[in-house]
Recover the amino acids of this structure.
């Protein structure tokens, strides 16, 4: 009986889907297109959503400066952003959300 329970527990643990980390490089690529006027292209809504899901507060209120700083750090985690991180963040970093 114990072996059966252990087998069930191991099977349950192995069947759990891993959490997918936000991909900063995909976000940079998708949002570089937005900066250039392409809007949110097909397949980019998740990456753009990852960026706009980063929201910081101070004293319970939305903090544009802290949000922009956190979003900038996220974009800068892509090693090959080629300067796009600052361009993207200067245009969208302080926004609360983006309707797409």
């Amino acid at each position: 009986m114990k072996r059966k329970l252990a087998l069930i527990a191991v099977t349950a643990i192995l069947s759990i889907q891993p959490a997918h980390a936000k991909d900063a490089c995909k976000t940079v690529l998708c949002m570089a297109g937005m900066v250039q006027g392409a809007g949110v292209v097909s397949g980019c809504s998740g990456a753009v959503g990852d960026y706009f899901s980063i929201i910081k507060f101070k004293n319970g209120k939305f903090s544009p400066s802290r949000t922009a700083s956190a979003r900038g750090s996220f974009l800068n985690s892509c090693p090959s952003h080629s300067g796009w991180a600052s361009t993207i963040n200067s245009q969208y970093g302080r926004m609360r959300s983006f309707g797409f």
